[in-house]
Hints:
- With 237 residues, the protein is mainly α.
- The chain is built from ten helices and two strands, in the order αββααααααααα.
- Helix 5 (110-122) packs antiparallel against helix 9 (192-206) and helix 8 (157-177) packs across helix 10 (209-236).
- The chain is elongated, with a radius of gyration of 30 Å.
Amino acid sequence: MNTVRYYHRSGLLDEPGRTSNGYKQYGARHLVRLLQVRRLRDLGVPLAQIETVGFGGGPPTAALLAIEADLTVNIERLQRTRAEIRATLDGSSAIDVPSGFEDVASRLSDPDRSLLLVYSRLYNESAMTDVKRMIESEPEPDGASAAFDTLHADADDATRQLVAETLAPKLAQHLVDYPWVMEPVEHISKGQRVTREAVTEALRELYNVAQLDVLGRASAIAQERLNVGQRSATHTA
């Protein structure tokens, strides 16, 4: 009854007349109208648009066409989701990496996979496409990555420096191929502060102190190599 009262208040259902004892006297037309309203609700038409849809049996209105378009998008999304779930169950896909990275998941350590999931929430599609290209460009198996992945938190300074120097050429090449990495403003989907804090926190949670130290050293070495190369190019020119 509360629903019927709401339909009365919203103008979707006319108020019936009353009998001598004060009871509302609903007729067949009220029942038909009520069933029509419920039919449209079942189809997903918002109450605010039901009146614009009408009940004349004519061609679809803009409201129905909009709902049909939304259903098409939702069906496509559900089909993609179902396909990913099926691939995961079959063992040919992974759920701990962003969509589209399934075919390179085997190259990544568990922390790398987790970091990718964080990246997928912070960077736009173009940036994530470049990140995948970076992964694909690396040889498999990659000794430098393996040395980093297995680095213990208590690794000594010499070991850290050696791993950093091994990683540096790869990082330098990435900086050459994807210069936006140094200034990613145009590729972030969140604010700069939010992105910076989220990435920093993720790195601290996912990698040990020695690995974080190596990342800092490798980045510095890679940047210095680029600077040397740029100075040499300037002098040559």
